[in-house]
């Protein structure tokens, strides 16, 4: 698959994550059936600005490195379940229906 197609798949999935919910980099790759967490992270770091980037977190709930304060502010405003300065991944994880 071309890089542009993969980028579009990642970004369109991230746009579907509801407020207060998250997906990990690895969950996105698993759902798409291609790539891995690093590839998803690369797409997000280069092209993720226009989508709700803060809803993509590490598997342990860690927020986007370098943007933790802004991500935390956004999660609090959306009511995302948190554990300290991380997302409570068990309660906040989302998977597309169907």
TrEMBL record:
Which keywords accompany this UniProt record? DNA damage
Which terms in the Gene Ontology molecular function aspect does this entry carry?
A: catalytic activity
Q: What is this protein identified as?
A: Methylated-DNA-[protein]-cysteine S-methyltransferase DNA binding domain-containing protein
Q: What is the lineage of its organism?
A: Bacteria, Bacillati, Actinomycetota, Actinomycetes, Micromonosporales
Highest taxon, organism lineage: Bacteria
PANTHER family from the xrefs? 6-O-METHYLGUANINE DNA METHYLTRANSFERASE (PTHR42942), ALKYLTRANSFERASE-LIKE PROTEIN 1 (PTHR42942:SF1)
Tell me the CDD domains matching this sequence. ATase
Q: Tell me one GO biological process term.
A: DNA repair
List the Gene3D superfamilies. Winged helix-like DNA-binding domain superfamily/Winged helix DNA-binding domain
- Residue ranges annotated for the Methylated-DNA-[protein]-cysteine S-methyltransferase DNA binding domain, each copy included: 7-69
Alphabetized InterPro entries for the sequence: ATL_DNA_repair (IPR052520), MethylDNA_cys_MeTrfase_DNA-bd (IPR014048), MethylDNA_cys_MeTrfase_DNAb (IPR036217), WH-like_DNA-bd_sf (IPR036388)
- SUPFAM superfamilies for the chain: Methylated DNA-protein cysteine methyltransferase, C-terminal domain (SSF46767)
